[in-house]
Amino acid sequence: AATNTLPILSANTLNVALDSQFQGKLTVTSSATSTIPSFSTTDIAATSLTLSGSLDVTTTGTSSFAGGLTAVGLTSSGGLNISTGDAIFAGKITSAVGTSTFIGVSATNLNTTGLNVSGALDVTTTGTSSFAGGLTAVGLTSSGGLNISTGDAIFAQPIDGGAGTSTFSGDIKANLLHSD
Predict the structure, then answer these.
(1) What is the C-alpha to C-alpha distance for residues 176 and 65, in angstroms, rounded to an integer?
(2) Does residue 152 carry a pLDDT above 60?
(3) Which residues contact 59 (CB under 8 A, 6 or more apart)?
(4) Predicted confidence band of residue 133 (pLDDT cuts 50, 70, 90)
(5) 3-state secondary structure 31-95
(6) Full-model pTM
(7) What are the backbone angles phi and psi of residue 13, rounded to the nearest 5°?
(8) Longest distance between any two alpha carbons in the chain, whole Å
(9) Does residue 55 surpass a pLDDT of 70?
């Protein structure tokens, strides 16, 4: 595959039509939205990022998206932080060692070792979402099953499990818990 070299850019919008791989840090400080079909990098700091393909974050640190992140799929071997706005994923989210923190998340499938959500987490998968390191959320709505295999599930708001089956091997800590 050919390697394309991009010069330092100082534009309001970055549009890349081909797959892109970055060995260093990509910083987008514009208030505009950058759209990239498929993306692999070691570190990201962006105001806003929209991907029509997959995003592979290999950093051991934290990738930050101040304006939110929209992606078909996300794989992160490090942490992922969405400080403002929502993280919206049409594909699978996989987070390895790092801690992922989101204000709001919408996903069709979620697999992570630890997840903190200060807003709502909406899991629309028909399969099973797995949280090996536990789950902390203000609110949870799941139209599929939810499985906490290791660690505790801590919720500050009601849990709506939808039609699927929710299973927890750890403790469930909630302000109010209903069986219906």
Answers:
(1) 32
(2) yes
(3) 41, 42, 43, 44, 77, 78, 79
(4) confident
(5) CCCEEECCEEECEEEECCEEECCEEEECCCCEEEECCCEEECEEEECCEEEEEEEEEEECCEEEE
(6) 0.67
(7) -135, 140
(8) 57
(9) yes
